Amino acid sequence: MSHHPLPARPSRLSLMVRSISRPALVGVAAGALAAAVVPATSASAAPDPGTSQSFHRTATYPVYKNLPKDLPASSATVAEISDVSKDGKTLVYTDALGKRIGFLDISDPDRPVGAGSLSLAQLGDTDDQPTSVAVVGKYVLVVVDTSESFTKPSGRLDVVRLSDSKRIRSIDLEGQPDSIDVSAGEDYAAIAIENQRDEEAKPAGRAKGDLPQLPPGFVQVIDLDGAPADWKAHRIDLVGPDGAALPSFVDAGLAEPTDPEPEYVSINGKDRLALTLQENNGIVIIDLATRRIEKVFSAGRVSALGFDTKKDGKISLTDSLTDVVREPDAIGWVDDTHVATANEGDWKGGSRGWTVFDATDGSVTWDAGSSFERLAVQHGLYNDDRAAKKGAEPEGLAISTIDGVRYAFVGSERSNFVAVYDISDPAAPRFRQVLPATNGPEGILPIPGRNLLAVSSETDDAAVNVRASVSLYELGDGPAAFPSIVSDDVAGNPVGWSALGALSAKPGDAGTIYAAADTVLKPAQVFTVDVTRSTAHITSALTISQDGAPATLDVEGLYARPDGGFWLASEGATGAANTIYRTNAAGEIQESVSLPTEISDHVKNWGLEGVTATQDADGEHVWTVIQRQLWTDVKDQTEALDGDDVARIGRYDVKDRTWHWYGYRLDSPKRDGGDWVGLSEITAVDNDTFAVIERDKLNGPQARNKRIYAVDIPADDPVGDELPILDKKPAIDVLPELRATNGWTQEKLEGFTIAADGSLYGVTDNDGLKDSTGETVFLRLGQARDVFADALRSSTTLSLPRRTTAYGQKLTATVTVTGGAGVTPTGTVTVKDGSTTVGRGTVRNGAAKVTLSGLRVGARQLVAEYGGDARTVRGTSEPFAITVAKGATRTSLSIAGKARKGKAKTAKVTVSAEGFAPTGTVTIKNGSKVLKTVHVSGGTRSVTIKLDATGRRSLKAYYAGSSVAKPSASGTVKVRVR
């Protein structure tokens, strides 16, 4: 939890995550666990392969939608700590900025509905702020900070009826409260009274913000016996009556035992309270029944490897933490003897992980080491701006048993995710998955009776449309939808990545594409992405260099050249700095191309946003887009050079180093002053058709324009200052795909490519988590031949050497297939006679030779069907008319030797043809007299005949023909009969 200096009164913006150990839900705990100094151990960043269930995000509800009707949507409002009614259908959250508590109807987890709010001004003062909530039966316990100043802390507990938001009772807490927890049997409520320090105050002889800063904090325990009117508060002091340190606190080695600074509370099944003292790096165990302090121990220190501790634009887990105090924030009971803490740190430390302690002796059972930070890096969620401070900053923690599995949920305040672990064995937590959240996930609320998890976020900035929300996740069958892209380990650490804003296919490799990050990462890098798995994997990173040194570029466009290397488009902070670079395969810059001054002089800071290339007889052509309008005067940006909402697409001809420009008319932005529309990518579909990303500046519920359009370039180049305005055709509306994640709809749809097999891929730029949730959505958008069917349509032609043939004759057809401009079709063709296939062939260099067989006799209509390929749509030729005549046959008859009258004699009959085996009947005649009729089926047939007259006889065989064969007769055979 973070603290802020008080103005006239404390600005209690850091609200408490509560740890609930009741059967209905098990706590959202605040604080981190304490431990002795031990070597940190790592939890695997790979999900447990033996699991069949995952948490699936069902909805993200922006809480500004639940503002009172008289307030504008831009009003500051957050959702920090939450609890839920016993039936799990009404969620209650604290809103410190709005100084109210809010209610959500989550009966349908897919469609949460705002159920109104309760202003604390109605209960007390307009400056009162809620710090935590808990639901007990039909009441909401609202913890309220009413402090006048840091030195005059105060607070109360309001008991509000859930059904009508009426306050039933108010209990003085005697100090500034933080978190609350309620025991499983609802016998006790425990509240940490922090009496937080002033970060600007300077105690005598100490540094600014140091301890002690009195009055000291303590714990209030409310006995929940009977009706609220009968509830009693009991104070448990953590210092002596005279303010002196308790011996157990001194023995534990706390930083300043006279100023405990209680933070988060959690109660186990035996009514023992675990309490974190964040600034003191300590943990206290209290028996609530006796109010006795049982154990005090230090959370200990951590020395470990595998962190990123430098804010330098490089995400690399090669640094170390040395002797760093954990300073735990959220805390929760794993079981009745183990507690877990999220070690956010405060002013002197933070181990960037979480720890499981044995609460009986304070020993460390397990520690996350650097594995929590590895998760942030692997999932592209690492916030390098926080590298020199507390990294991923684990703050919230909740523990619950859902569907028979004991889970720990650990929230990253600065990397906007919740990591899920199976902690059935406290000594060996198993990582299950990462849940993406909106900015500053603070409250983590399991709702086990409904297999749900609610995560509420504390960051709200309407100016950049980063809005606080409540996200819901449901445990169910099947793999999780997030992540859609992760990085693999290289040399023992995950590849550091973020802000993917450019994509390119790898020529000839359907399973691999490339991606690049913008200026968020330094130096510039090109990532290799394996897309063969359901989740894309970044497998390696190539550093871009110039003159032997790593190059710092703002890569917004990427194209892998078939000849090797890349074209890169780097967007500059000024118009003149926008540059296109060509690299070799090693990433070394070989050539740079600047924009012509007549363009760069009119570009402010929305310059190059994509690059692609085509090749034809005139050489290589590089295409790029300017994101927004050119301005007549870049200083005031009031008049567009080419007219309203017209951006430019440019072609650079490598051979003669000339530029040619075309206009693209953007859709109009939403007219509220906070939106603009621009281009974010260009990808060649063929040599004269290009796909471009057009997107607005809006995100979340306001997002409305995330589209891919196709444009055709005219055959003739522009002349002089002519700027042809291109016609654009809708190709893909990506907004439904982005909303289908059920998360915060991402603003920056920035990367798009067509892989070698025609698969379409897109990606959102997470902006390095600046004014963004940090979630990257990697999109699979179908096939090019389907989406760009008009541009990639084919023309199939069937030709034969003649229009007549005979049955059985060998005939070779030529099938010619043409595709889009510059596209050479591949694939297979099939020649058909009606529904009968008479030949198949493979297209090479745009044509296929197909040997036909089985053509039936008669007038035939043949067609060729082309099956399509990655860049060419399937097609069918016009019919080709051909007449197939019956095939010619040859018949022969042979009789060996002399014959005797009336005696059997063997004769051989042969019927043959070219290309087929004739069948049918053959008649042997002696003159006009039939001697024998037999059936033949190709080859030679031996038959017996009898001649009944002596002398010389003339025999002949007659083949009668068939439906495919012409008749034929043998020559005359002379036989002497004795």
TrEMBL record:
<dbReference type="InterPro" id="IPR027372">
    <property type="entry name" value="Phytase-like_dom"/>
</dbReference>
<dbReference type="InterPro" id="IPR013783">
    <property type="entry name" value="Ig-like_fold"/>
</dbReference>
<dbReference type="Pfam" id="PF13449">
    <property type="entry name" value="Phytase-like"/>
</dbReference>
<feature type="domain" description="Choice-of-anchor I">
    <location>
        <begin position="341"/>
        <end position="432"/>
    </location>
</feature>
<dbReference type="Pfam" id="PF22494">
    <property type="entry name" value="choice_anch_I"/>
</dbReference>
<dbReference type="InterPro" id="IPR032109">
    <property type="entry name" value="Big_3_5"/>
</dbReference>
<protein>
    <submittedName>
        <fullName>Alkaline phosphatase</fullName>
    </submittedName>
</protein>
<dbReference type="InterPro" id="IPR052956">
    <property type="entry name" value="Mesenchyme-surface_protein"/>
</dbReference>
<feature type="domain" description="Bacterial Ig-like">
    <location>
        <begin position="902"/>
        <end position="977"/>
    </location>
</feature>
<dbReference type="InterPro" id="IPR055188">
    <property type="entry name" value="Choice_anch_I"/>
</dbReference>
<dbReference type="GO" id="GO:0005975">
    <property type="term" value="P:carbohydrate metabolic process"/>
</dbReference>
<feature type="domain" description="Bacterial Ig-like">
    <location>
        <begin position="802"/>
        <end position="885"/>
    </location>
</feature>
<dbReference type="InterPro" id="IPR011044">
    <property type="entry name" value="Quino_amine_DH_bsu"/>
</dbReference>
<feature type="domain" description="Phytase-like">
    <location>
        <begin position="496"/>
        <end position="767"/>
    </location>
</feature>
<dbReference type="Pfam" id="PF16640">
    <property type="entry name" value="Big_3_5"/>
</dbReference>
